[in-house]
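To assess whether the prediction recovers the assembly geometry, we first specified each molecular entity separately, as shown.
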Amino acid sequence: MTGITVPAARAQPVDRTRAKRKAAWRRRRLVLVLMSPWLIGFSVFFGYPLVMSIYLSFTHYDLLSPPKWIGTANYRYLFTQDPQVGQAVKNTLWIIAIMVPLQVLFAFGVATMLARARRGVGFFRTIFYLPALAPPVAATLAFVYILNPATGPVNILLQHLGIDGPLWFQSPGWSKPSLTILGLWGVGNIMIIFLAAVLDVPRHLYESAELDGAGPFQRMRWVTLPTISPVILFSVVIGVIAGLQYFTQAYVAANVASGQASQAGDQTVNNLGYPEASTLFYPVLLYQHGFRYFNMGYASAMSVMLLLVAFTVTVLIIRNSRRWVHYVGAAK
Amino acid sequence: MRRVGIGLLVALVLGAAVIAATARTSANAGTSAAKAKNITIWVGWSAAELKAFKGVVAEYDKKHPEVTVKVVGGINDDKITAAIRSGKVPDVVSSFTSANVGSYCNSGAWIDLKPFLSKDKIDVNMFPKTSQYYTQYKGKRCALPLLADVYGFYYNKKMFKAAGLTSPPKTMSQLTAYAKKLTKKNSDGSIKVAGYNPFLGFYAGNAPDLSAYAPLFGAKYVDGGGKSTISRDPAWNRMLKWQKSLVDWYGYKKLQKFNAGAADEFSASHAFEIGKLAMMIDGEWRVAFIGREHPSLDYGTAPAPVDDAHPELYGAGYVNGTIIGIPKGVKNKDEAWALVKYLTTDSHALAIFSNGVRNVPTTKASLSSKDIKPDAHFKTFLKIFANPNSKTTPITAAGNAYGSLIQAFAVKYQAGHAGDLQGGLKKLDKQIDAQLKQAQAGGVP
Amino acid sequence: MTSATVPTTATALARRKPPAAVRRRRFLLAVANHSLLIVAAIAFLAPFVFIALTALMTNSQALSSHIWPHPFRWQNFVDVFHQAPIWRWALNTMIYACLATLGVLVSSIPVAYALSRIRWRGRNIAFGTVLIALMLPPVVSVVPLYVMWAKLGLVGGLGPLIIPNWFGDAFSIFLLRQFFMTIPEEYLDAARVDGCGELRILGTVVLRLAKPAIAAVALFSFLYTFNDFFLPLLYTRENPSSWVLQIGLSEFRSLHQVQWNLTMAATLLVMAPVIIVFFLAQKAFVEGVTLTGVKG
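The predicted structure of the complete assembly is given in tokenized form:
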């Protein structure tokens, strides 16, 4: 549309500046056209909700009657009275402090093994990556079945070995570890990134380290880890952000594991967080308040807090990372 | 790579074509004045029960050419609430959870039916007392009863005979003794047949909010001033202790494994129906399920056993109604009301539906209607329904949110994670009172 | 983008023959490494195998302690379609995934181009907003957005799921921008000398050169929406005619009162499309994932 070429040389200098200005204006218009989806998208789907969230968090709003200003009551209830929020925060911290690091470690371990393999790299890579593609709902359903304490294949196999298997998703002590196993299974994305990074480590660095008499572990410590540290940082940040939003697996697992309730039970039983609120993560609680009870005001207060925490945590990680992340010269 | 790109493009174009088509079909939900109006009704029933309900509606449909009724089954309260908030509502909704009527009436999510009732001169005294209670909140009637569920006792006669037992237990201590007698274990110590499975969350009779047990212990939820009395009424303490003692006798973990291996409650492999469970508390609907799925099962029904301290309660049980109403934002109010009126007050409709799903009919006239097919098992439940001590859960402004709090505590206690029982109940009272206060103030949760 | 290939320098270095003891140790290490890999591979595959086996069991067998189906009940895969409107769910899923993917491409490519190949004031700030959007948990904005969609009367349908994708997706913009940056300026200058406007350059030169990145973005977007559960749950849970496969699957058991064998058959069916797409486009996937990590 704007592909018309600028009229060629005109004699007068006045005209040239005007042409220049015209070109600049056209350029600006082009940028505006190209950027318009994002300008609209960012303001409607990020800016507006942000401002609205803050406003709604000071109101009582059930979507039936207009929002009612109640000051800081939502925040006061959140910090002093809500009987569930403490548990939800603890559970979410568990995910961030235990599951995310385990995922990173595990992905790194598998990637290292893969990088060392001489044969079948492509084959193994496919197998390790495949679970990452499985839809979370399907994967969770499958794991709840596989880890069924009575009829699941894992406990049956354990029984053959003479081991009385745990209750997995049915016990508050094992539900989060069960979700972690599910999380490790689906770790393919990070694994592939690690694999590429490990393979990208310049060979000559290993060479010179070996000449200096470094063993495999020292090479790992002084060559591999520093070189791939940006990737580690990336996966930790992504992991933490994902951990703060951990929802689907928890929701489906609780729903299916609590299992027996289907018809009449569905309404009288609060399945979220089953068993014993051990899978009640912060976003699950937010869902309960916002989209089960439709306390939009209170849910907004919860999301404002989540936003603050997510922002702080991300900034902290990236700040601290300067001490241990090494950017190799050219990398952008 | 290129091939994938092309495939994707084809898929995208196809998708775009399809959405145009579906967008049109979903837009049809609106009304067209000239032709028959489309009325949608949401109900909780599914499978065979849904079929029975559709049969009742089909009769109405035939008699009323001015409307076409569409029935959607498998609905729960979550979906009803979400639909009302989203502004896209069906014309008539029905819920299995009468305890939620408080929040529906209080928030105005279901509209007040009073104008319709007075216009058509319907006296609510045509409904039994209990049903009147769970269809209003503080005098605001936003629902009507559409059949009720009554909980009673089921026992396997063959197993009773084999164990030398002749009649169903009448007290909780008898129930415990029978349960121990009827339980069979596998060689590895796991449970093969559970005499009675008291595990909270296992089937409807063990609803984790204890609702099915409360009337059997005469347990009171609130005092005259509306304060929670769970720590002050010793019945709750006795109930929880009895329940836990039986769980502990089996072993918590063993019972969990038994539950995990049991089939879904509403499938044909229900543990009681296939002989893996000798006794249970369950709703009257089970009579119809057994009739359909395992007609040769030799079983008996009776009122559920009661607290040893209150033998006079025997005969009572838990009542939970199905309620029906009109959501806020409905356009075809009059047509919706006509359907609600027919379903809830027409003796013939109630009777044939009751025959189909074997739920208790909810008008005084239909309770004694000749259209109700007699059935020895079912009669037990009609009697329980009529018992003056039969109770439903209290109707509060917070809906059944207090049930969630009771559940959270009871489930922890059963697992042995709750610590001191009396202290826990006191805390529970406080939480329930606080929650109710918030709900009444229309404030935070 | 070439990072996924095994470095070729390794072979050159291996020419120098190390002493026998070292070779022996290396051999043993390789064996240990490979055995570990095989064990891990079995563990990774096991869930798929269990799902498939259960999907072929009879109703009562799925509730017993047998692991191997006896007899094989292929009928399950037929029954699943009678139990639930799976075609309907699949159709909704395709509508959602395809239209969202199309929207992401149409809206994100121009933005990424403007953020990478055109110089203008405020570009860095604009890119900053993309990074912020990338970091923000979407959960944070769902409440006001739900209110907005409810006011517009679009809750219950697929609109709230699809429409935002037509206004730029932060992740895709980021990925494409990083890729566009790597295109040598000479190509673009050559086009400019030929008298092409920026849009023409974008439409021809850039799109042709950025094919792998665009394919990756399309795949990710498709996969993300195909697997999405949270947003469909929020916006369509009360309207079964708008359900996508993930919602249908999660409600499958309670809604249709079926046993594990059919549930697992349905699970397998829901997993199948993604796995097929993966095998068709494995290279694009791996390159795409690598792109996100290494370049970020």
